[in-house]
Amino acid sequence: MALKLTRSELLHRQNLIGGKWVDASDSAHYPVINPATDEIVAKVANSGAADAHAATDAAEKAFPDWRDRLPRERAEILRRWHALIVQNTEDLATLMSMEQGKPLAESRGEVAYGASYVAWFADEATRIYGDIIPQQQRGKRMTAVKEPIGIVAAITPWNFPLAMIARKIAPALAAGCTVVAKPAEDTPLTALALAALAKEAGLPDGVLNMIAAARDEGIAAVADWLADDRVRKITFTGSTAVGKHLARESASTLKKLSLELGGNAPFIVFDDADLEAAVAGVMAAKFRNGGQTCVCPNRIYVQSSVYERFADMLSKRVGALKVAPASDTSAQIGPMINQRAIDKIARHVDDAVENGATVLVGGRRLTELGPNYYAPTVLTGANVNMLVCCEETFGPVAPLFRFEDEDEVIRLANDTPFGLAAYFYTRDVRRIERVGRRLEAGVIGVNEGAVASEAAPFGGVKESGYGREGSKYGLDDYLSIKYLCQGGLD
Ligand code: NAD
């Protein structure tokens, strides 16, 4: 089955700036590639600093009116946007599968997930409360109000082309900010379609501006935003290395930053766990999007007495996964994003084998399917000297580490600069309390592998970044608090 759009006009190749679809200022284009085949899906605008600047001009012009709208008016537009996203699920999912490769069922799931943030923040827009501070001095009234921070620059990765950008744009718009956005170079089409639907929903011109760019030009575009003191906030999801770069480079204009960065999630299976549930948890958490998620378990720790049994149960499930292009409706794992990703996965598996790991299933490229496929893999005998222990593999590889007791596994789990997600399975309620408290991570799955929700605060600790997306806390990053002290009231 070939992937085709019902509304072909949702495939945009130009930037959205000030409500108009425009080419890059030097009319440059770059190809967006389907990772299933390495064929070109479309050629899109290759924007640079001049386009980023034009986007900021438009966002600046639109800001006063958007800021001063009633929250209810902003909420209504967000609700219309949400309805249009849901209505166009099939086309958005198709675009996403074409440029990112994930199976259609997962793409549909991501549309629903991304849309849920828009609905959530439509509601939250009307609940931005301030405080009247209990009186401290006669004749004075002290209040704290929350205001939109200003122009927000959103920069996102390729692994969730819709959800990552929706969960930045939605709270920013709800708060009354205007936005300039640059999706990842590999996956601009879903994001541009999302912007088109926001325009269709009646979002005023210039409130959301989106530019596409290849890697180097995109870096130049972002550099323009970093240096521009009109841009008051950077919200970024991506690698820790780039997050640190943005933190350094935005220091000269002291922007507020939210950084959702890389992870190295531990997944702990204690010997009193429901092993069937733990296997299901690994399948859900590890193999979603072919293992290309920031919350994927990277290190699976299994207690000694259940290690062999767990490895056997997991291998059977992993060996049965169907690897195929998104155009095959039975696909469970699609291609990886590109050759670089495949090379990294192969390097990690080869390194593990050289250092003593055993491949139970998988462990090879699937060149017979296409250029970017890797077999879902289970490794036993993983240890701290392997790359799989200290670097995000970002692929369908489950390395199993053996441990003896709780103290040891907590120490091993926390022995990483990262702290995004962690998971553990046990039936002991006291252990749940202890381990939940001691694990250093922003998001913890307790007997649960699927943790994402628009109602929950998502974000990391340590080098996985700061700031929270979703939940009642998700607006805070887009607001500043103003204190007013009114005198002469006695
Ligand atoms: P990346 O950091 O290479 O790229 C992310 C974005 O930053 C892209 O838009 C890219 O064009 C841009 N970028 C790259 N270099 C830049 C520079 N020097 N200046 C300005 N912008 C630059 O990450 P990626 O490979 O696209 O995504 C994978 C990473 O994202 C993984 O580490 C993953 O864990 C992380 N991630 C984190 C979360 C989270 O919520 N914490 C979610 C998804 C992905």
From TrEMBL:
Gene3D superfamilies xrefs: Aldehyde Dehydrogenase, Chain A, domain 1 (3.40.605.10), Aldehyde Dehydrogenase, Chain A, domain 2 (3.40.309.10)
Membership in a protein family: Belongs to the aldehyde dehydrogenase family.
Enzyme Commission number(s): 1.2.1.79
Transport is among the record's keywords: no
Protein's recorded name: Succinate-semialdehyde dehydrogenase [NADP(+)] GabD
Aldehyde dehydrogenase domain: residues covered: 21-483
Endoplasmic reticulum recorded as keyword: no
List of catalytic residues: E260
InterPro entries: Ald_DH/histidinol_DH, Ald_DH_C, Ald_DH_CS_CYS, Ald_DH_CS_GLU, Ald_DH_N, Aldehyde_DH_dom, Aldehyde_DH_Superfamily
A GO term, aspect molecular function: succinate-semialdehyde dehydrogenase (NADP+) activity
Keywords for the protein's UniProt record, in alphabetical order: Oxidoreductase
Highest taxon in the source lineage: Bacteria
SUPFAM superfamilies hit by this protein: ALDH-like
Organism: Paraburkholderia nemoris
